[in-house]
Design a protein that fits this description.
Largest sheet: 2 strands, antiparallel
Strand content: under 5%
CATH superfamily of the largest domain: Sodium/glucose cotransporter
Strand order of the largest sheet: 1-2
Number of domains: 2
Number of helices: 23
CATH topology of the largest domain: Sodium/glucose cotransporter
Structural class: mainly alpha
CATH architecture of the largest domain: Up-down Bundle
Number of strands: 2
Order of helices and strands: HHHHHHHHHHHHHHHHHEHEHHHHH
Length: 612
């Protein structure tokens, strides 16, 4: 089948979206503080509104990967993946009331500043490097996914699509700043929803209603919600999606720099928590709508699977193929759909580049400058460096986009990357925030052992093939001897087919990777911290402030302090303390190198260079 190209009107729609997004960036570049300070460029002067930030939290990670990946997931494997939305409900209060208060009280720009205050410089650098690696890999997928869509519906090659999108994203990120990123996220989120609902509407009109879409999916074995199989080798079950989804969500919304940076752009903790709660229904609405769009696509192709018919090369091209075959003849509609994909990735990449810039500036450049020069880097120079860093990371992300072709399905690839790196990072922050006795040696050993194991588990192989649901080419209408056949695989029974041929751990569902990585980090961290105990020396816990712990742990420590013979280990009226103040000049007693009962430790003052 000859692939259709864009009509003139489609290109006009596409160009108009780019112009509007760029104009928002230019507006914020020329108004207000003109992005001349890092406070404005990275945190939006801390006066952003709840609703835009709520949309931005969703758009930062749920973009073309969601639209293409989740629709393909429901088409090929059924609706079981929808259960992951329950994990979002469970995880949101944990992120809002256990993790966020710690970061908000310290007012950090980079979340990894916390790790230096809690553990030490080595932990901070290792985790910030891991985060940077995670985001660069993910940005590669985010650029690749819509480029795949563009190459499927236009005459553009995949290479040309990746380069054109990457250049636009990088340009936008270097001038927009946090205010422009959040504002365009709202606009681009609406386009994402428009793309999804256009697919559902088209399919409903073609087959005779939403109920008919559901009936066709049910007859094709696509409807499944309550797979309670306890076997961890089954790809998607209620257990793997709820538990694995919860830890994945926390690795993104509780400790990820891109998300926490947005939450810190609001004026107070209560407002920030409201934005996180607002993100939940927006996220779930997009997830559920995109899932149903996969069933909508199935209602057209259930008797002639385009992948088996070799009309497409990847299942991630199902949605763009559907659009071009159904409304490609109507000027502008195909362009509107691709705009939805492109705008989602544009917001995601700009958000990631903004956070990568913040981490590099705060975790590498500023400390190095202070160590060498003995003074702080001028803020105007910091703002310039932030833009240069965003440009550099944009170029690097484009390079990694070309490697995304070897990752497989975009949804599973992205979740695997988050599990491999996000799980260990979540574990390190959990050690610091929930376990007062944990020290730097435990954190570092836990991180390194977990990342090593997770990389092997996530990307090692060979792995068993994924069990697909029934597909057919009986109505494809060409060479019936070759194409008139049905491919039927039972998803439950075939998931373990030939299991003796594969190593047992390679058979685990990819969703357990983040859980295993988290548990290894925490357990190894606890054991090593307890083992070194009083002999932890320079590898022990940093001088610990009560603000470094989650509110519930903080209350317990303060209560225990009040019972220690009148000792003033903690200041019960401790105000909000900026990270720079904690690092530069703080009175923080070392309670945990030798245990909580060590109440007579003298108060120590150290400046930032001493910490380095």
């Amino acid at each position: 089948m000859e692939r259709a190209g864009f009509q003139t009107v489609d290109y006009v729609v596409f160009a108009l979206m780019l112009a509007i997004s760029a104009s928002i960036g230019v507006y914020y570049r020329l108004t207000g503080g003109q992005q001349k300070t890092t406070q404005e460029y990275l945190l939006g002067d801390k006066n952003l509104s709840v609703i835009p930030v709520g949309f931005s939290l969703m758009a930062s990670f749920m973009s073309a990967v969601t639209i293409l990946g989740v629709s393909m997931e429901n088409y090929s494997y059924g609706t079981q993946f929808i259960v992951i939305n329950f994990a979002y409900v469970v995880a949101t209060p944990i992120a809002a009331y256990c993790f966020l208060p710690v970061f908000f009280k310290l007012q950090v720009t980079s979340v990894y500043e916390y790790l230096q205050m809690r553990f030490g410089l080595v932990t901070r650098l290792l985790c910030s490097i891991a985060f940077s690696t995670q985001m660069i890999l993910y940005m590669g997928i985010v650029l690749y996914a819509p480029a795949l869509a563009l190459s499927a519906v236009t005459n553009l090659s995949l290479v040309t699509a990746i380069l054109s999108m990457g250049i636009v994203c990088t340009f936008y990120s270097t001038i927009g700043g946090m205010k422009a990123v959040v504002a365009t996220d709202v606009f681009q989120s609406l386009l994402m929803f428009a793309a999804v609902y256009s697919v559902i509407a088209i399919a409903a009109i073609d087959v005779g209603g939403l109920s008919e879409i559901w009936n066709i999916a049910n007859e094709g074995g696509r409807i499944e919600f309550f797979n309670l199989d306890p076997d961890p080798r089954v790809r998607h079950t209620v257990w793997s999606l709820t538990i694995g989804g919860m830890f994945t969500y926390l690795s993104l919304y509780a400790v990820n720099q891109a998300q926490v940076q947005r939450l810190l752009s609001l004026r107070n903790l209560e407002t920030s928590q409201k934005a996180l709660w607002l993100n939940l229904p927006i996220l779930m609405l997009l997830s559920l709508s995109t899932s149903f769009s996969g069933l909508a696509i199935y209602s057209r192709y259930y008797k002639c699977d385009p992948l088996a018919d070799k009309r497409i090369k990847s299942p991630d091209q199902l949605m763009p193929l559907f659009v071009i075959e159904t409304v490609g003849h109507i000027p502008g509609l195909a362009g509107l759909f691709v705009v939805g994909l492109f705008s989602g990735s544009l917001s995601t990449v700009s958000s990631a580049l903004n956070s990568l810039s913040a981490v590099s500036l705060e975790d590498y450049i500023k400390p190095a400058y202070i160590f060498i020069k003995g003074r702080h880097l001028p803020d105007k120079l910091c703002a310039v460096l932030s833009k240069i860093l965003a440009l550099g990371f944009g170029i690097l992300c484009i390079a990694f986009a070309f490697l995304a072709q070897s990752f497989g399905g975009v949804l599973q690839a992205s979740l695997t990357i988050f599990g491999v790196i996000g799980g260990p990072l979540l574990g390190v922050f959990t050690l610091g925030i929930f376990f007062p006795f944990a020290n730097q040696m435990g954190a570092v050993f836990g991180l390194l052992s977990s990342v090593s194991f997770a990389l092997w588990l996530g990307f090692g192989g060979p792995k068993p093939p994924l069990p697909t649901l029934p597909i057919s080419t009986e109505d494809c209408g060409h060479n019936q001897q070759e194409s008139n056949f049905s491919v039927v695989i039972n998803a439950t029974s075939s998931s373990l087919k030939g299991e003796e041929e594969y190593f047992i751990l390679y058979q685990l569902s990819y969703l357990w990777c983040v859980v295993i990585a988290f548990l290894i980090t925490v357990l190894v961290g606890i054991l090593v911290s307890l083992a070194v105990g009083a002999n932890c020396g320079s590898w022990g816990s940093k001088k610990s402030n009560v603000n470094l712990f989650t509110p519930s742990v903080r209350k317990c420590l303060l209560a225990r302090t009040s019972k220690t013979n009148g000792s003033t280990v903690y200041d019960t009226a401790l105000p909000v303390v900026a990270a720079s103040e904690l690092l530069a000049d703080s009175t923080i007693p070392d309670l945990y190198c030798n245990g909580l009962d060590k109440t007579n430790e003298e108060v120590v003052k150290r400046n930032y260079i001493t910490h380095l």
